[in-house]
């Protein structure tokens, strides 16, 4: 195994750990892969594969420890899977600048919601909001965004599920399920484009799986204030990255 393999493995561990707790793992992975000479298209495909594998290990962990019901997982995976495929297909018809503008608007909105969300001061799950078409549609659109573009999708997921009166911990768990579905759907599309380089993908997948497991194990021990600060920091960094790309 060469140096690049271990570099990508380490990159996967760090980005997946941070991404599990607050999202924004792509802030680390894509720029880093480009820095070491991996083309952007291959980087995106690699990221989808590794994120999907990491999320799969997360789903297995959640099932094993009975944190989420099988019904909840299946429902969210199905919604996200269709969203991921849709997003990956739609992206080919939208310019990167347009996607960045959309991302900027969503991130600003997410920042406002994060500051206003009262679940940050409670570790107790509130009364669940009634399931509506909108509450199911939002995960679909987050998954579509993740499948086709990605920056901040985990962050959006965490904020959405917290807005549904879930605790931070459960919101993270549900987001891992969402990301698994979206990455599976998107990867099918990217695989057919021929951009998958398995040497890169497997290295990143190993690292991402490890980072995701560490993140889930650490999750119950993360103070809410720290989690909120981390999430807000990630959102600001994502906004900065998107603004830089637009300008």
Automatic annotation (TrEMBL):
InterPro entries: TM_pro_TauE-like, TSUP. Its main location: membrane. It is a multi-pass membrane protein. Keywords: Cell membrane, Membrane, Transmembrane, Transmembrane helix, Transport. It is found in: Cell membrane. It holds the Pfam family TauE. The chain crosses the membrane at residues 73-92, 98-115, 174-192, 198-219, 226-244. One of its GO terms (cellular component) is plasma membrane. The keyword Membrane applies. It comes from the Bacteria. The keyword Protein biosynthesis does not apply. Belongs to the 4-toluene sulfonate uptake permease (TSUP) (TC 2.A.102) family. PANTHER family: MEMBRANE TRANSPORTER PROTEIN YFCA-RELATED (PTHR30269:SF0), TRANSMEMBRANE PROTEIN YFCA (PTHR30269). This is Probable membrane transporter protein. It comes from Bacillus methanolicus (strain MGA3 / ATCC 53907).
């Amino acid at each position: 195994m060469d140096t690049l393999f271990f570099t990508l493995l380490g990159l996967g561990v760090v980005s997946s750990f941070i991404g599990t707790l607050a999202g924004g793992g792509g802030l680390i992975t894509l720029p880093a892969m480009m820095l070491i000479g991996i083309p952007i298209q291959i980087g995106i495909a690699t990221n989808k594969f590794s994120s999907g594998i990491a999320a799969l290990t997360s789903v297995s962990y959640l099932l094993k420890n009975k944190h989420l019901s099988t019904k909840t997982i299946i429902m969210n995976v199905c919604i996200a899977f269709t969203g991921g495929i849709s997003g990956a297909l739609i992206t080919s018809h939208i310019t990167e600048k347009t996607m960045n503008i959309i991302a900027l608007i969503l991130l600003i909105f997410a920042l406002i919601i994060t500051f206003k969300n009262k679940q940050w001061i409670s570790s107790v799950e509130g009364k669940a909001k009634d399931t509506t078409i909108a509450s199911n549609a939002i995960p679909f659109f987050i998954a579509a965004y993740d499948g086709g573009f990605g920056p901040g999708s985990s962050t959006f997921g965490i904020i959405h599920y917290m807005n549904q009166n879930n605790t931070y911990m459960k919101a993270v768990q549900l987001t891992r399920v969402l990301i698994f579905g979206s990455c599976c759907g998107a990867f099918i599309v990217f695989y057919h484009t021929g951009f998958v380089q398995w040497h890169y993908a497997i290295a990143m997948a190993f690292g991402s799986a490890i980072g995701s497991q560490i993140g889930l194990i650490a999750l119950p021990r993360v103070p809410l204030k720290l989690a909120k600060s981390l999430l807000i920091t990630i959102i600001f960094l994502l906004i900065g990255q998107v603004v830089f790309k637009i300008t």
